[in-house]
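Hello, quick one for you while I still have it in my head. A protein chain has come my way and I'm curious about its shape. Can you walk me through what the tokens say about the fold? No rush at all, and the record is pasted right below.
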Amino acid sequence: MRKILIGCLSIIIIISVWQIFAMQINNSFILPKPLAVFETFLELVKNISTYEIIFLTLFRLFVAFISSLVLAVILGLLAGNYKIVDEFLWPVVSALRTLPVASIIIIIIILIGRNISLYIITFLMIFPIIYEATKQGVLNIDKNLKNAIALETHNRFIIITKLHLPLAFPYIKTAILQSVGLGFKVIVMAEFIAQTAKGIGRSLLNGSISINYELVFAWTLIIIFIVVVFEFGINKLKSI
């Protein structure tokens, strides 16, 4: 209860400061007032097309996330067992982890185009996190346990799927929970930069182009709400 009350107080202070600055500027083209933004927010919530836009963005995230998860876990398991795989993938993974997101988005859009690039960009941002977590999960398995299982069977497929994958799962689970929020932010940014026909990022772009900052702020509130829902779900899953 104390945490909720302090959180509400923080929100009230932010809105109050926002209102004060908006009143001083007194120009909705620079900083719209909270009430105007809230009214636009309510209009969006009542509009069915808003949910279609949100669904489309989340669908893109889901496709990219599942694709990245499957490949990252498979390669992570192999890298944890075979050093040559780790050495082969190391330059690619290191590059993806160090390159700025904006640079990757622009490069992929130029090379592939706008539509498919959204999935590729999100895939590339999530992949290194899950790959590294899976690899570390395998490497941190107790050597005595590995040796004991190796005495029972020499079938590498059985060892990897029946032993390494379950034991590495706590690492994979943590990486998955970390990747969801990042993936959502990346897909919205990619939609904005790629100027897709439809999506949350495109809606933000439309608002900025038309200088309708009430719309931009309203969509930002929706994004914050979605991220909060993600974080709530993540915290629940962490306790499982």
In short: The chain has a mean pLDDT of 84. The radius of gyration is 22 Å. The first helix runs from residue 2 to 25. Residues 64 and 120 are 7 Å apart (CA to CA).
